[in-house]
Amino acid sequence: MKKIFLILTALILCTNFAYAEVNSLYDQVWKLVNTKYVDKTNNKQNWERWRYKYDNAIKTPEDSYLAIETMLASLNDPYTKFLDPKEFEEETSSIKGSLKGIGVQIGIDNGKLVIIAPIEDTPGEKAGLKAEDEILSIDGKSTKGIKIDAAADQIRGEEGTYVELLIRRKNEPDKVYRIQRAEIELKSVSTKLANDYKLDPQIGYIRLSSFISKNAAYDVLKAIDSQKDKKGYILDLRLNPGGLLSNAIVLSDAFLPGGVIVSTVDRDGYKDVMKASRRYYTDKPLIVLINKGSASASEIFSGAMKDNKRALIVGEKSFGKGLVQEVNRLQSGAGINITVQRYLTPSGTDIHKKGIEPDVVVELSEDDIKNKHDSQLIKAEELMKEMIKISESRVK
After folding, report:
1. Phi, psi of 126 (to 5 degrees)
2. Which of 49, 135, 153, 187 places its Cα 20 to 30 Å from the Cα of 270?
3. Helix or strand (DSSP H, E) at 93
4. First to last CA, the chain
5. Catalytic: 228?
């Protein structure tokens, strides 16, 4: 009898421990949002009401995940998101430089699941996916009301498997894309021009497809080193969905002889101003190409270059993401990205949902796209030739 009692006691203790653990995860997320989220009033709601809301309902890790996601959804912020252990591992892998999927950055725009940008030389780009494509369904399941992390989980998968996306594109009939997943090596930098375009030999070209990899900024500097003979550079940030804030700061510092790079404002209104160190890497003329797929860190860099008059910004208005997320590791290998700051360009401009306006607007027409005629790059080349002439005349 005593033995049975001891077994029952042990089972009760284990059950209580498991219950406490899953409730602890929920409480940990609640506390992080309560102390760190950029909006101190937590989207004008009483955040306290969430703390003990699911105390009697959470029994398993899955219950905890669902409760956390429901709580975070009340913030109406697609960038503050919970990541289960698998998703957190995948995000960590992307920072390290690789992931498995089709290679697209997704977001929520006016309640719709959209592609912010396909990553260069990935299955998504090769299949023909484009910025602003709306994803109507994933493997036949509607995306109406879907959260970003749930959509990402459905799109990712084992290398060699397929995913079907129903895509809606402006002025075109809806189309299903069947795309084979692969291991995506996040090569941030390329100096290769599309369509075998021959750029003026005195001009260097660098394409930065993402700020996600921790080495992205330094890879750009290596690309500059490999083109030291060039008299000016075109830095292509089109379809660059952003990534690490630190990369945007390092890269901006490499081009600026001084001045403000970016300012961040936290929940208490504290403004942190980040300035260039004056140890710039190059002072040669610079043009930055952007479009509607350029977001986040791309906009921080572009804003720094534009407001400091260091570079000419050419192309189309950028995406408009002016929020900074902090990555937090949670117990049991899960994680949460929390919007902790808003950022302002050096002139004090909040570009969230507004984007960066180019100095020279050049839009790609449907005919340009069909004929693989890069009118934005051609215009940048034309402008760079003039900038080099001006630069050389000043030296003389």
Report:
1. -65, -30
2. 49
3. helix 85-96
4. 100
5. no
